[in-house]
Amino acid sequence: MIAFVRGPVAAIGVDSAVIEVGGVGLQVLCDPGTLAGLRPGQEARIATSMIVREDSLTLYGFADDDAKSLFELLLTATGVGPKLAQAALAVLEPDQLRHAIATEDLVVLVKVPGIGKKGAQRIVLELKEKVGMPTRTVSGRPLQAQDAWRAQVHAGLVGLGWSPRDAEDAVTAVSPLAADNPNPSVPDLLRAALRALSKA
Prior knowledge:
200 residues; alpha+beta; DNA polymerase, domain 1; Helicase, Ruva Protein, domain 3; five-stranded mixed β-barrel; 20% strand; four-way junction DNA binding
């Protein structure tokens, strides 16, 4: 098990980063918020969870150990795979997610793309006694999907080297794609924003 990786950031992509460790470039799949904290050439420490499949070894990366622990807990719920668990942490902060599960707040959970009402009920049933309460006070309302995608896409673009102003313009440009979608896909919108910037 690879618990974390540390080294210079060799490259940053739409949904992953390459960290150089001992002369080897390790690709780590990350949500836009985690990618936003990375800068090419600068050293970074990313908490990681390794998912082993018959045909692949995949590293998922997180800004801190708290998010990693919650990701791994989510994977123990029936029907929750790595992509869905990562999507949950992209839309909600770890403590917001804990609070939603602990208080059986299905309205918040179904804001995560890929989680329907039955899936939310199953997550609550299986994880409520395991997740614990938030480690910090949860202030304000959890990010709604329509609010969250803007922050995530903006953070992802800034993390990829675009200026905050350019990132805001790109978010505005792709907003019509999410206008009629109650659960917009952050990765898809980020890719669309990158295409918009490349044409500018």
